[in-house]
Fold:
Amino acid sequence: MSPPLFFKRKLLWITAIVTFCLAAHATSSLSFDGGGYVVDLEIGDTDRPVVASVTFHRPGDAQGVVLRGNFWVQAFDPRCQELVLVYGGGDGRVEPFTLTVQGSRASLAVAGRRIQAPFRWAM
Structure:
């Protein structure tokens, strides 16, 4: 392979990687932590932020259960700091729950309890 062709291929490869990296959107996470329950939300930043996945931790559960696609986001507006996320069941390891956030206050309704905790919108 001649050196000019080698360098052209290298340059194309580097250009492709840089283009992909610039086009890829960052993710961030938000979290609820109260009453021993932790709900981690992975936020994907496409044209507008979306909840990409949810990891639910029961009290004492360090690993958690990842919920993908089997939850419903009724409202998600980071600018107005509003979120309503509903999980209706489907995975026996996680009870149905509703996470409601207004500003810095959050409420998790799970297992017949309503747990209040602060919520931080640092994305």
Summary: The mean pLDDT is 82. The two ends are 48 Å apart (CA to CA).
